[in-house]
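Table S2 (text version). Query chain:
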Amino acid sequence: MNDFGDDVDLQYEGRPKEQYGISSHLPNYFKAVIKFIEESSIEEVLYLRKCLAQEILHLSEATSEENQRLISTLKPHIRAMFTKNRRNVVLEKLLLKRAIRLSGCHEIMSREPEILDLLDRSTFGVVTDSADSDGSAPAERIPIPPTGFWRMLNDDELQKQWSRKIPDIPRGSKAQRPPSVEIWWGSWEWSKMYEKILEGVRGGIWKSMKISELQVAPALIFPVVQGSPVKVRPCVDLRRRNAVFYTVEKMRLLNNRATRELQFRLMAKGEEYPLAFHSKKDLMQDLSRERALVNAIKAGQAVEDRNEAFQPLESISGSSTSFFPYASQHDLAGWYYQTPVKSPESNTVWLSVPNSVSKDQLGLDIPNADSVLVDSWLSIEKAVEAGFCIDKAPRKSTQRGVLVKVPVRWVCLSSDGAVFGSIVSVHECVGQSEALMLLTNCALRIPSTIYVDDANLQDRMECIDSAAFLYSFTLLMIGRIEAEEKFKIMKNSSPLSRDELISASLVHLGLSHTLYPQLGEIHYQVPESKSEKLLSLIDGAVLDIKGELMDPESGLESARRKLVLDTILAISGLFRWHEQLSRASSLFASTLNYWMDPLKFSRGIKKRARRKGLIHNLLTMREIVVRRKPSILSFRSTGKTIINLFSDACGEFSSIQKMIKAGKSPTNEDIRKAEIQLGGYMRWQGHRYIWFYRVSSVPDWIMLSSSGIHIGIFELLAYCINIRWAMTMGVSQSDYLFVSHCDNLGDCFSLVRSASSCEVVRSISSSWFLTAEDLEIEYYPVWLSGSRNVVADKASRLRKIEHIRKMFPDAIIRHQGIPALYADLVMSTEKHYELLTGIDPGGANAKRIRAR
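Corresponding structure-token output:
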């Protein structure tokens, strides 16, 4: 029978990793392919892929006749598309059925009909407009069929979509009127998009449509600038049509975190999940599990759970089948356009023709082009930029300034494939990406993640070539088109011996992945080009705010720089790439939220104090970008042992809060009377360790901050001190992953979401983020209910120390060094408080910390 101390350990300590809120970003069927690839030898993998390639070739020939019969029954535009791409739908369906069977995943196998129906829709054409069925406006909303891969929405989530108003979409003769809107894009973006559209016309993606035959008003196509190097993507404004449809599933997009998690699991010994990759969603899942566990304990159902919960945490062991993953990157060409629509007549767009293109030239660019001129009112700047002659153009004055009337030529185009901008296209195409990922992982046995049209395959160095070949060969056999120019294999950093496609690094979903095989490490960084562009934008924005002269030598007052909203939006967008790798970055990213609102921007930029604060925020963000360090994944980090830490704090703050409200500054004696105490607890190498600390002084800048002094500040200080204290006890951050428990929910959200309404809590979090990065500390914040945080709760109350000694006679109670840790943390937090708020703490006659 356990003694009382052991019973407390079992009941109140942490849970095994699979019971934390660490939700895998990978579907469950990945377990099967990871297990296969790790347990098979190189020779077995290569032989299997050779056999699979031969079998797929045989099946392609065997299904050819049946596939031709199927294609002959399709609509003419779909038949032409599939014939051109040599689609073999029958083969694709056979492989998908095999993948479902081999997945070993109940969720996938139980939804097989929905997954196969998804493939059928991409064969016979997806419905993108309500007129595809009967040609009339819908009486009610139209559901987007489920894909079989995502969570079904509940009634409340569906009700929110049903409550939205269905907009009126012009039909019949009204649909034949081109829009009389201002062309809001610049000449460069427009010319690039026009070139892109012409490529689609030559490739058969876009076709001219007779304006007199229109039954549904076309949408407006416009350019979206993306990426680095910069590219322009045509996007269609389908907001009115999208409102007709509603979704029945919660769509999931696999981002860069999924690829990093796959790399982690291939390098890790065993099947544990990567604790370091946590987010707000993980925390919410953890909250529900913790509450369920508390309810089970109260109901007396925790006996079995306790024995299971505590034992696995002391060590992690596993097989030695892990390996260093190499990568192969693939891109599907025109993925949206590879999905045919049921009715191209309802899949139409208005395209504004550049003023430099004559009507005769338009006929050469777009065969059988049917165009019409429409008078539009443009700003003088836009009209000149677009190349219009405005000397004799009619003018009028408006609130937006002087506008001129110019003739804009419009042409109507239709597409046989799904277009970028349709909610139906997004769900259907991303669903097909999920189907292709299932096929690749389970039927081809290639570990891979796919984000819409970007595929990233992972395998051993000796096998990655065979994986890339089998994947590309399979796509060729089923008639899915790859962008060959984007194919790349990431192998090693030695001199290139094969061709330029082999590299030591690649950029996947905005992050650079660089291999260091000798060290067993993969480094993740924001590409240098993105960082340089961000720094350039920040430097320019600071000069804009100061109103510097664009050409100092000219001496012209009119040539002064002026900040525009687009610059702030661009800075915010580029800075968010750093959030994937740095929590400090995500905390500072929110400082621009105020300026991203057009109304607040126009008002704030006129105020000197606001401008000064914006400059401060931008320079702080610049400093974070300059000091950035790569995020490193290594064999050592995947094999760390979990250690559970628990912390708490207590204090009586009402009297101090009353004094501050009355305009008085609390003295150190007042602080001592408040009995603010911190404490922590851990069990390590068979021993129990406890620390406690009584706060004797608090700087004025904390007490006088806008959020005031409260318990959350000190519970977060205790959290940070707890990990540093464990390291002073000998717990090495290179060998252990700190699962640190705290019963303050607000602090947990600050540590996970990098956000808090309290400026002091944000400052402590910011200080801790950078400290953890510098010392390479890996930690996972966990919310623990107060009823289960019993040991740390007693450790934070000095009058209960004797009770702890009776509970744990063998406990090691040490608090040496805690005052210094507290002082260092508060000093560091003071600097970050100034960085985040732009307020000098010393300006409030802040007391220097003299911890006793």
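Notes on Table S2: The first strand starts at residue 142 and ends at 144. Residues 492 and 517 are 7 Å apart (CA to CA).
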